[in-house]
């Protein structure tokens, strides 16, 4: 396996949906238009590829100077636990630079993962849930 990474490339919506469905990340994959809009309005996308196969995505919103919200990190099930997610996070952090913090909301099933890759757990976040 020879994984290579790309920054700034938005994969085809169908490829993204395949990764989400395989990874177990809960996203609106039955609504391709919504998935396409999520990526069209994100300004930092890092992807992982095994040849021509999309195996992982990191999708963020950032100002590149102060903060970055890493909204999606998904790896195909059969590629998990191989360091791909950690590398996508590292490349995201590299792209935003040392002056910007990286923030994400973890899926309940991933709460144990993020501290293992050096992220601090926070207790001071608030949200208004989406309506649909």
Written account of the structure:
By secondary structure, the protein is of the alpha+beta class. It has one domain: Aminopeptidase (3-Layer(aba) Sandwich), CATH 3.40.630.30. The protein is built from four helices and five strands; from the N terminus they run βααβββαβα. The protein has helices at 13-23, 32-40, 84-96, 113-116; strands at 3-7, 44-50, 53-62, 67-75, 101-103. It has a five-stranded mixed β-sheet. The longest helix is centred in the last third of the chain and has 13 residues, at 84-96. The N and C termini lie far apart (38 Å).
CATH class: Alpha Beta
Count of domain modules: 1
Cα distance spanning the termini: 38 Å
Helix-residue proportion:
25-40%
Look at the structure and name the CATH superfamily: Gcn5-related N-acetyltransferase (GNAT)
Beta-strand content: 25-35%
Low-confidence stretches: none
Q: Kindly report the CATH topology.
A: Aminopeptidase
CATH structural architecture: 3-Layer(aba) Sandwich
User: Helix/strand-derived class?
Assistant: alpha+beta
Q: Helical segment tally?
A: 4
Overall 3D form: globular
As laid out across the biggest beta sheet, the strand order is: 1-2-3-4-5
Query: For the residues shown, what is the average pLDDT?
Result: 93
> What would you report as the Rg, rounded to the nearest angstrom?
14 Å
Kindly state the number of beta strands. Answer: 5
Taken in chain order, the helices and strands follow as EHHEEEHEH
